[in-house]
Amino acid sequence: MTEHAKGPFDVKLAPVALAFDDSDDGAARGRMSLDKHYHGDLEASSKGEMLSAMTGTQGSAGYVAIEKVVGTLGGRRGTFVLQHFATMTRGAPRLEIVVVPDSGTGDLAGLVGTMHIVIADGGKHFYEFDYDFDGAAA
């Protein structure tokens, strides 16, 4: 049975040096560290990294990220990894955030799911997380 978790989260982004500079090739790349704190149904913190690219076309960009989440979800304690894949095509966004298969540990072993991010007026961030346990590690 699919569960639904939601709540606010805080995120801090900090620039990190790129492994190589290719700024003369058209798309501007960036690398950031992620530091998040989730509240509500998911009480957790996470650390991660994000790579991004912005094109010369206004509103077109993309990013990928990996974050390791440590905390409690629905009364279960453990860790899991989220993978982000996002693009924006001339202002039209597409974002997928999924639990990396078999990344759950502790009471969160077998966790599967997808997360959605909502950014409200004023920049406040909220998550909605649909999840279940696949039973493979139970």
User: How many domains would you count in the coordinates?
Assistant: 1
Side by side, the strands of the main sheet go: 1-2-3-4-5-6-7-8
Instruction: Determine and state the CATH class.
Output: Mainly Beta
Write down the overall geometry: elongated
Cα separation of the termini: 15 Å
**Separate helix tally:** 0
In short:
With 138 residues, the chain is mainly beta. 0% of the residues lie in helices and 65% in strands. It has strands spanning 3-15, 28-38, 42-54, 61-73, 76-89, 92-99, 111-119, 125-133.
Main attributes?
138 residues; single chain; AOC barrel-like
Task: Describe the model.
This protein has 138 residues and is mostly beta strands. The protein has one domain (3-17, 26-133): AOC barrel-like (Beta Barrel). It contains no helices and eight strands. Strand 7 (111-119) and strand 8 (125-133) form a beta hairpin. It is elongated, with a radius of gyration of 16 Å. The mean pLDDT is 92.
Annotate the secondary structure layout:
Blueprint: E1 3-15, E2 28-38, E3 42-54, E4 61-73, E5 76-89, E6 92-99, E7 111-119, E8 125-133
Antiparallel strand pairs: 1-2, 1-8, 2-3, 3-4, 4-5, 5-6, 6-7, 7-8
